[in-house]
Design a protein that fits this description.
Blueprint (H helix, E strand, L loop, with lengths): L7 E3 L2 E7 L12 E6 L2 E5 L5 H15 L4 E5 L18 E5 H6 L6 H10 L5 H10 L14 E3 L2 E6 L2 E7 L9 E5 L2 E9 L11 H13 L4 E6 L5 H23 L4 H10 L9 H15 L8 H16 L10
Parallel strand pairs: 4-5, 5-6, 6-7, 11-12
Antiparallel strand pairs: 1-2, 2-3, 3-4, 8-9, 9-10, 10-11
The structure holds zinc ion (ZN).
Length: 326
Amino acid sequence: MNLPTQLSSVPGSEELHVWAPEGTGLWGYANCLWIISGDDAALIDTPYDGPMTETMIAAARPRLGDRVVRTVVNTHANGDHSFGNHLFPDAEIIATEAGHLHQHHEPTPTDMHTLVHASPPDSAMGWYMRRHFGSFDFTSARVTEPTLTFSGEYAFEVGRQTVQLYEVGPAHHHGDLIARIGDVVCTGDIFFHGDHPPHWAGPLQNIIDACELALSFDPRIVIPGHGRPTDRAGLAANVEYLRAVQHEICVRYEAELSVEDVMDDLMERRFYPQFGMPERLMIVVGLEYAHLRGAPEPPRMLDLSVRAASWSFAQHGAEPFAPTAP
Ligand SMILES: [Zn+2]
């Protein structure tokens, strides 16, 4: 994976810059938004491990100068948006209270390292974790808890810019937030651009509602959690996709199909064939099924992941395993 060595300026916004790892078909390469204004700097989300975060800081240095990052916002508690927090030691770290409360249910860097390196390589999970997470250095990642939490809405200034945060979870995850800076919206993982997304909290209606809230701001630029930055139309297309997913799942739930049968049926019908990572759609099917059944809590992340990895292994397991270069 070639990580960006420079920040890209958000068109029409001289003080906003995105560090956007390219590519679809990937886990863990999230977008980070820099706000550099006056003598101040803030960052929305941090990368998954130490080397990625160091690369991003080096990429930001020419624009950052000697400013200190005083604020880091985590859109949610997943490690690919927060495991680099510790490399901003002077920053206030802002998250929602719900996201913070959920943090202790998240896999830690040690858990991730163990899953990648200690799962039997010929098991579905061992195969999947090595294939998709083997390039990250989880020994350099840290859980750094927020120092400021909020519920509902919160705003702060960065030089001349005002950053408005809106709690929209539970949606992709517990305690998601989206950020609005003028006509730019940073959605976190309620929006993956170009692939099937995984969602962990739901139900899907909450994710749709969160996207609708972002659309109501009439954004000119939309920075998704993963995938290429886009505009209002790109986010609107995501809502259309989510509504289609919601409908297709509901119909098959009523027909009493198993989660695996839903997947086989959707693949046969070529549901959004342009999107990669169909096993993540399976995570969403499993999650939505739990909500349709009236389960009091979403299924455990690990249970959803094992099922998706097993399905993916069955689809691709015959491929020889090629380790990803670190
Ligand atoms: Zn993410």
